[in-house]
Amino acid sequence: xxxxxxxxAIARIDHxxxxxxxxxxxxxxxxxxxxxWTLDVYxxxxxLTSFQPVADEDLAxxxxxxxxxxxxxxxxxxxxxxxxxxxxxxxxxxxxAGQVPDPHDVxxxxxxxxxxxxxxxxxxxxxxxxxxxxxxxxxxxxxxxAKVLNLFAYTCAFSVVAMQAGARQVVNVDMAAGALSIGxxxxxxxxxxxxxxxxxxxxxSSWGKINRAGPYELVIMDPPTHQKGSFVAEKDxxxxxxRLPDLLAPGGHALLCLNSPKLGPGFIQDLVAAEAPGIxxxxxxxNPASFGDASPERALKVLVFKAPD
Length: 309
Fold this sequence. Notes:
The chain contains 9 helices and 16 strands. The protein is an alpha/beta fold. The longest helix has 18 residues, at 56-73. The protein is globular. It starts with a helix and ends with a strand.
């Protein structure tokens, strides 16, 4: 089986990438026959992912193409290549070539983040949210001293860029203490030693504590689409949205995110209209160009809303 679009994308790599980024996004449906494939770079390592089982004879030409291209753009440097096969519930990861640094940190837009390619389904930094992080950086920079609430904070990348941009305080909340621990390391990695707090709590049972630290000039909500036992977008997102009027300062903004192919941007807009009337839709942020999708309704949704003045 051949994957010409993926091989062509590899052949067109013309420099050594410095920032973590996606190089090929077959999942977007723009490359027929390559829907199972993604190719990311977390310098100095490459990550090839298949969302379907792959035979060794199909994997070999892709690895060979990467090795040949790497030899051309980085002569004398070893290729570090990780392959992951994943489905909705599990992932199998193997090192195909070279090695992965341990610890491993990468850069994006002037910030650094710890990542882990050889374990788990998520790697510490969601590359498709790069434009969301850019927006937060620019938004906070225009409002120095802002107080920010970062819900479902994961490894706190939003917090890092907000603090770098001049936020006075960021409250990070996530029930995964391990992810928040990496978030703390991310702050120290960027020289941020104060201003950010890390609450390893279930958000739905912690509204009292979250409210007491507010109101906030910016609220970020980036929940999982479906996490058994903790969050299901169809029934739980409304519970988040109805809290916005109490969380937001007058004129404050909310960044509401959703990564579900089954739910379009209208899902969030309708929820806000029903559960938080008075809070108005501002814009939907474009996803990174490398995450092009044949169906924008299915792609990552990152929407900006504003509270009344």
